[in-house]
Amino acid sequence: MSVKPRVPRRLIAAGFVALALAMSSCAPPPAPAGAETNAAAEATDPNAVLRYIYPNAPGTMDPHVVNTAFANVPLFLIFDRLVHVDPDGNPIPGLAESWEYSKDGKTLTLKLRKDVTFHDGDAFNAEAVKANIEHGQNVEASFVKTDLASITDVVVVDEHTVELKMDNPDVGMVLKLSDRAGAMISPKSMKSDNINVHPVGAGMYEMDGDYQTGVKFAVKKYEGYWDPEAQGLAGIEMSFMADTTAILNAVKSGSADAGAVREPEIDGAKAAGLNVVEGYDLGFGNLLMNPDEVPALKDERVRLAVNLAIDRQEIVDGVLFGYGKVTNQPFPEGYFAHSDKAENYAYDPKRAKELLAEAGYPDGFEWKITNVPGPGSRISEALAAQLAEVGIKVQVEQTEAAALTAAYSDGTAHTLNVRWTGRPDPTSTLALIFMPGGSNNPSNMASKRAIELFERQKVEVDPQKRAELLAQLSDELVEHPPASNVVLFQSMTAIAAKPEVVGLDGYMTGKVEFRGVGMTK
Questions:
Q1: What is the bridge-based pairing of β-strands 485-497 and 258-261?
Q2: Which of 136, 184, 316, 333 lies at a CB distance of 3.0 to 4.6 Å from 324, suitable for a disulfide?
Q3: What is the DSSP letter of 434?
Q4: CATH of 280-492, one of 1.20.1730.10, 3.10.105.10, 3.40.50.2300, 3.30.1490.100
């Protein structure tokens, strides 16, 4: 059985609604979490514990430090955010009941929920928000500081009101606060080394024992949670397994109730009678490149040659079993930041060879591409075979997910073949990958026009005008291939689950949330 989520039926509508809500004077009224997805609530077992397997293990449980957005799936069980998102990607109330921008767009006022406590019993209030924003901006190795960079001051107005002062209007801030930048940690636990294995948040579930790093952890229902209708389970046991074929086998055998799978496993899951939640999202398969380690990539002609030497359709059909969409820009068709003008690169190895020769590399060059085990290996091998046809000699290496980013940062890995998991607002993806200073743009290379368009869209409060600027930026990234990235295909989120698991929904962000998820008796 295939369960089609609402992701992303009308991405363009969702995008504009998100923008309009972000700039509005008040967030929409809170709706009962799981109202649509938990239709079988009366038949669910309140004592059920869901066994879920996920391929991406976080290296730390500190949401402000963890170096991958894949970690949102386990961490958002424990940490509530100031803003939540619905499956279509629109901002909805979280720990902030409402928000309002000032007329000049430089102050964002958040009205906070009352009577909310962290798992350690401490009150959630404006002081806690201030402590968290400053922690995200200043903690060593922060991976959310880019999202919070425009905030110059956090003003506590009263116990349940906080003002975020910004140096310039930042129309993406509301949606940024729905990501890890808005995850609220108990201030008392924030500076403890224990946060890496026993985090304390204000979310639906609290830790039940310590995290066995890279292996598993367990959570139990937090009795003091502000939205009890979101808690359909007594607890969740989450384990980690990089091999998604092994995840599928575990669900088929009954040793797990549900798990995240990739495109090659979807047909097998359906054939086994499992429910499959599948849908395209804001993520994409890509190569994250470090031209400081591979100097040939600093030449735009070489980067264009690489793009023309890759047969994306062959990868989608042969490696992803047709579950993917060919693209060479970071935002999908129908989404408000997508360019309808830019065309996909044609597969043209002959022209690729000519460009390499023009750039001074008639015999190609050596290139090391690193991925985690699983489908990434098959994609890398396909890329290596295609690039070899134009003289580029690729060495494929594997490493575990927890070590991947560190290898990229220290130069051990020249290029990563990874899935980018989409971000709630386009600014975050653009800043992290394509702009100078981004954690995934180590060479700090970007065209002047790309930088100009990026800065203009950040402060444009009119949704239509902002969308036009973002589309122009997508055009620029296709016309002048960036030094940091090669987009390969639009990604898909897929979860295989036993029929007893109800309430699972796909999210445009690509990261499933467990609000309203339960199990039948």
A1: antiparallel
A2: 316
A3: I
A4: 3.10.105.10
pLDDT in tens, 7-61: 333 344 444 445 554 555 554 444 334 433 444 445 899 999 999 999 989 999 9
- CA pair distance 199, 79, nearest whole angstrom: 9
Cβ partners under 8 Å of residue 465, min gap 6: none
Per-residue pLDDT tens for 68-101?
889 999 999 999 999 999 988 889 999 999 999 9
Q: Record the pTM.
A: 0.86
pLDDT at 400: 77
The amino acid that residue 93 corresponds to is: P
Find the length of the chain. 521
Distance CA 262, CA 219 (A): 25
- State how far the Cα of 408 lies from the Cα of 39, in Å rounded to an integer: 44
Report how far apart, in Å, the C-alpha atoms of 269 and of each of 283, 353, 427, 499, 501 are. 22, 41, 35, 12, 15
Nearest to 477 by CA among 433, 439, 437: 433
Q: Which amino acid is residue 222, in one-letter code?
A: Y
**Cβ-count burial 352-376 (b if 16+ within 10 Å, e if not):** bbbbbeebebeebbebebbbbebbb
Of 346, 345, 329, nearest to 471 by C-alpha is 329
Structure tokens belonging to residue 390 = 């134009």
